[in-house]
Amino acid sequence: MNAPISFPKLTVRDADLYDDNDCARITAFVEAHPGGTPFHLPQWSIAVERGCGQRARMLVAQDAQGALHGILPLTETRSPLFGNAMVSAGFAVGGGVLASDDAAVTPLVDAAWALTQNRGCNTLELRGGARPAAGWQCDDSYLGFVGDLAQSDEEQLSAIPRKQRAEIRKSLKGDLTVETGRDARQRRDHYAVYAESVRNLGTPVFPKRLFTAMLEEFGESADILVVREKQRPVAAVLSLYWRGTVYPYWGGGVHAARTLRANERMYYALMCHARRRGCARFDFGRSKVGTGPAAYKKNWGFTPEPLTYWARARDGEPRKINPLSPKYRLQVAAWKKLPLWAANRIGPLIAKGLG
């Protein structure tokens, strides 16, 4: 008969994200964990705090010897429009409890729930990670799209399904150029393109300083790819590179991008660029089930995988911030009609409360 498994007694504390030793230990834990993501790293939480003014926290579960058994990044998100929430991880598509053993999950979740109540927040959101105990609402309406990169530019093009490959070939024949970097011009052009893109979709743009903070915190592990028609930026994406995977996170195109097939050029160029940077995987992010963006990613040959989020509220239902929700239909329609200068001025004030 096997001896029963015993776990050391764990304590949970709020780590100091501005302490180099704490951050180094958390980073090492995330990098060693097979389920780790860039959204679990201290850099992500710090950039969110710097960029959106929402307080970042990091709960850690450790044993008597100080060894880490689990972490939970949290963003204390406050918004007069969307309410107050603890989010793991803030402004991310992933997060949730990252634990090396099951014994760390419940203490971390319990500590996060206690913190949620103590800080006057109504909702606690866990975007992925270990499943909490009973009493949580499950949201499985999102799909993730991750796939392998090919060994060469030609093989990458051949790996893309025929219909989408034809669109990429047309983009390659167009008068488009591609550049990558992190300088002031590329940052400016990325923000201009991204802001117009999300305005056209009817959603507010994030503060410009969020993108600046991400580039500064992630250093050489982040860059911008810009597609130009002559000198005009028509598509751009800010990407993270971590543990052999590229994460194209904030990207979009201007109205003319569709006709120019600039987005097709952008994502194909990024796949090739990421491979040259040593990446073997492409994380195309999340999309809602049954939406156009989900279909678009399938057209590239990505197989959708279900994502599971968890939420719990003190009073009533957890907050709902999905712009596809019918309750926001009129607001989305109105936002699309705003002049770009107005959307760019008002948008960051709203978007920083989305979390």
UniProtKB/TrEMBL annotation:
Coiled coil location: none
Position of the signal peptide: none
Domain annotation BioF2-like acetyltransferase: ranges: 165-298
Protein name: FemAB family PEP-CTERM system-associated protein
Organism expressing this protein natively: Stakelama flava
